[in-house]
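Entry 14. Two folds queued back to back today. First construct below, sequence then structure tokens.
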Amino acid sequence: MNSRHLQYLNIALAAFLGIAIFTSTDEPEGQPSYRPDKDIPQVVKPVDLNREFDFAGELLPMDNFDVRERLDRELLVNTYWHSSTLLNLKNAYKFFPMIEQKLAEAGIPEDFKYLAVAESSLRNVVSPAGARGLWQIMSATAREHGLEVSNEVDERYHYEKATEAACKVLKQYHRSFGTWTMAAAAYNAGYGNIKDEIETQRAETYYDLNLNAETARYIFRLVAIKEILSRPDEFGFYLEDEDGYPPLDDYEPIVVSETINNLGDFALEQGTTYRMLKVYNPWLLDSRLTVRPGQEYEIRVPK
């Protein structure tokens, strides 16, 4: 046997031994070996769609395959978007009691608390279009419904006042379109856009409309959020009450009728810090607060 043949034989033998070592395992044939120090076990399965789903008491037409698939997508996205969903569950402890009260006072179905989750993940965020706050309200809409928007004050960040303004918008849309589902869609897309699409497409329900990607997913996303947040343990999310974030209800209201030149000084005078003053009053944008003659503001000071 010449040297070249011997070289080929050695290569073949090494390859055979490598394959034999790689494939040897104590696990049953066809089953992957589990490495508890390296692998993360998961249970990933579809969500059961074989039942009724509703938003604000209005049933989804689950006999429509298109509706089923669109809902399935949002249920899966939100079920397996772990960090975001868990934060939403924690924030719900902070904001849902207040939102539920405001919705009840306005005669709006409780399911609309999930709209705030879909809009902002229950955070005072800013959209690329300039919508702000828990309810993602544009400045023109805010002013139309009595919210102050200025360089120093933006009441879209005032949790209660912004919720009341959102309720006014939703009631207006419900009167115009006749269903809560369509009112929610209009909240996302805008009244004029939904009205035009209904007329152009000759559609009778939200589910008949062919809309932009965000609004086409919107109701299904609301339903998915509702399903998960209303019974999280069924979707693999386990929280105790102490895991939730506490409501911002432990404060002393201070009525201010004169300009505050420095909110840091004001905070110290009230026995708190500038940071905590902004946490309890996120609608205060600047380091000062100008108060015009005859005007008053209620500032919350944590106890």
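Second construct, same run, same settings:
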Amino acid sequence: MGSPSLLFLFLAVLAFVTVDCSYEGDVLYAWKIKLEDPNNVLKSWDSSLANPCTWSHVTCNSNNNVTRVDLGNAGLSGPLIPDLGNLTFLQYFEVFENKINGSIPSEIGKLLKLVSLDLKYNHLSGFIPESLGNLTSLRFMRLNHNNLTGTVPKEIFQLIGSGNLWTLDLSDNDLNGTVRATNPIGFAITTVIQDPKA
């Protein structure tokens, strides 16, 4: 009598994990079709494969949740999409030295496990979303060498003030304003802050 119940529980868990993996794969595939990929680095991102953990440049944890996307210097162009904010287990989003354009979606601020956001040397424009201040696990934020405008949200500086954000690089953008010298953080918007323990 116990065996059928155990089998049902196993199948239910398997179905949940499969649906979760499939959803993350759907998000990444939806992004892929918005990108130009002249070097074909996303060839393995196949929508017919339910589990994106088999795709190149994608790393997963033991539960098959996507934790890393590593696409540095891949020759990609196109936008970031809001659905990327639904990769809730993502810890590293490394998409530097490409030709990514458009704005940074505010939905990126939903990636609460994110440790590193590296979008340097792209063609991003628009404002830095205030929602990035929600990323309390973030240790490294590199948005330098883009076309970002406006002022830096105070929520970003609060991450540094709390001691969580170790490296912030916003240099070589079109940002304006500075942090007042009386602010305990006390640095200009283009300065890189490094972990004092490093």
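Quick look at the second one. The chain has one domain: 2-175. The chain is about 20% helix and 20% strand.
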